[in-house]
Design a protein that fits this description.
Blueprint (H helix, E strand, L loop, with lengths): L7 H4 L6 E2 L2 E2 L1 E2 L10 H14 L9 H20 L8 E4 L2 H16 L5 E4 L9 H10 L2 E4 L10 H7 L4 E7 L11 H10 L3 E5 L11 H4 L3 E5 L10 E5 L1 H4 L12 E4 L4 E3 L13 H17 L1 H20 L4 E4 L8 E6 L4 H10 L2 E2 L1 E3 L4 H7 L4 E5 L6 H19 L1
Parallel strand pairs: 3-15, 5-6, 5-7, 7-8, 8-9
Antiparallel strand pairs: 1-2, 4-10, 9-10, 11-12, 13-14, 14-17, 16-17
Helix pairs in contact: 2-10, 3-10, 4-5, 11-14
Length: 407
């Protein structure tokens, strides 16, 4: 029996809600996770007690805010195994982080004739920035072939990574298929030809112990809101050797060293990439989320997410008329499926009547939908507050949906 890893009602206030007379079952954590009380309180405490801008004034509140902001960066750096906190750039989330890499690193170091390697399973946030970079530079996009069940293999990577490869950009875990991708192998291959590895960690950083050195990444992007943190905050980690060479893409307050009428010079990393007032409360909340996840234990969370994701896959695959996508094992926390003869949006609406929250649509992965041969899917995704009882509710919701549309 798989139980939640935490005291759900105590730690997560939202689970004390009922919807349509039913206990809320949140199976949409791949879109955003729920927030523990510790994170809510950390953000509230900042605004109540220490609200001030950072890196500017010298009064007490500004000193407290700047110290808390710096500590949050240190926590995030430790959480992902970075050598130094300065390698962590606060952004709005994975999307902004990946756009920053494509705009700054890409415009500086990717040239006409270079190749950018992607996979068909990438989220649009790890696809469109590279499409635009290719349009600007004349670089070529190449896609690694997937296996029949939606996996990336070393053999597939070997076929597309070559002497002209400058960037390989892959998700560590697919937000649709739950596939866990061998980015470490991709790192070895692309480094041999002088390229870089960009990892979309939106689905992996919340669910697995992460060490950027073990990944072999040159850049790692992730979002706070998928790992129990606030919305509007995330991070880009990059190797310092690249960050120091890269140009900023947002210009304004606190990212400068010196400005006169005609010229400007930039502040040191990370400030040169963080123009304007940052999301201070968000960063502090993200730091609190890191504390919470570390207290639970990332190894425990990883085992829990995979076990529950694989159980959901098995349960759904056993229901007649239900198609489940992706590899059965290993399988991450997100499980995509379709019910024969029922549109995914109708599925989600019937589920909502039973207070079972899932997502329906193309999941910002339209090329993957084309590869699967479907227009959209339903998707259930689990996290540390879910357990077997929620998978049972998922199964009952599917059976009720089938009964409803038969009627």
């Amino acid at each position: 029996m798989i139980e939640p890893l935490v005291d759900v009602e105590r730690d997560f206030p939202i689970f004390n809600r009922t919807i349509n007379g039913h206990r809320l079952v949140w199976l949409d954590s791949a879109a955003t996770s729920q927030k523990p009380e510790a994170v809510v309180q950390a953000v509230d405490r900042f605004y109540r007690e220490s609200n001030a801008n950072v890196l500017r004034s010298v009064h007490t509140l500004a000193d407290e805010a700047t110290t808390a902001f710096a500590r949050a960066r240190e926590k995030v750096a430790r959480f992902i195994g970075a050598d130094q906190a300065e390698e962590v750039i606060f952004t709005r989330g994975t999307t902004e982080s990946l756009n920053l890499v494509a705009r700054s690193f890409g415009d500086m170091f990717v040239k006409e004739g270079n190749e950018i390697v992607l996979s068909p399973m990438e989220h649009h946030s790890n696809l469109i920035p590279w499409q635009q970079l290719a349009r600007r530079t004349g670089a070529l996009l190449k896609y690694v072939d997937l296996t029949e069940d939606g996996r990336i293999t070393a053999e597939g990577l070997q076929q597309v990574i070559g002497p002209q490869t400058r960037v390989v950009a892959l998700s560590k875990i697919s937000n649709v298929l739950g596939a866990i991708n061998p980015v470490e192998i991709a790192a070895e291959m692309v480094h041999r030809v002088g390229g870089v590895l960009v990892v979309d960690g939106a689905q992996s950083v919340p669910h697995q112990p992460t060490n950027v050195k073990d990944l072999g990444a040159d850049f790692l992007a992730f979002s706070g809101h998928k790992m129990c943190g606030p919305t509007g905050i995330g991070a880009l980690w990059g190797r310092m050797e690249w960050l120091e060479k890269m140009e900023p893409v947002i210009f304004g307050g606190e990212m400068i060293s010196y400005v006169d009428r005609d010229t400007a010079t930039w502040a040191e990393v990370p400030e040169k990439f963080e123009g304007g007032t940052p999301n201070i409360a968000g960063a502090i909340g993200l730091g609190a989320a890191v504390d919470y996840l570390e207290q639970v234990g990332m190894e425990r969370i990883s085992q829990h997410s995979q076990a529950l994701g694989e159980r959901a896959f098995e349960v759904l695959a056993d229901i007649p008329g239900v198609s489940v996508y992706g590899p059965q094992r290993p399988h991450g926390a997100a499980v995509a499926f379709n019910i024969e003869g029922v549109h995914p949006h109708d599925v989600a609406q019937v589920f909502d009547a039973q207070a079972v929250a899932i997502r329906a649509g193309h999941h910002c992965a339209q090329p993957l939908m084309q590869w699967l041969g479907v227009g959209s899917t339903a998707r259930a995704s689990v996290y540390l507050y879910n357990g077997d009882a929620d998978i049972d509710r998922l199964r009952e919701a599917i059976l009720e949906t089938k009964r409803f549309f038969r009627r």
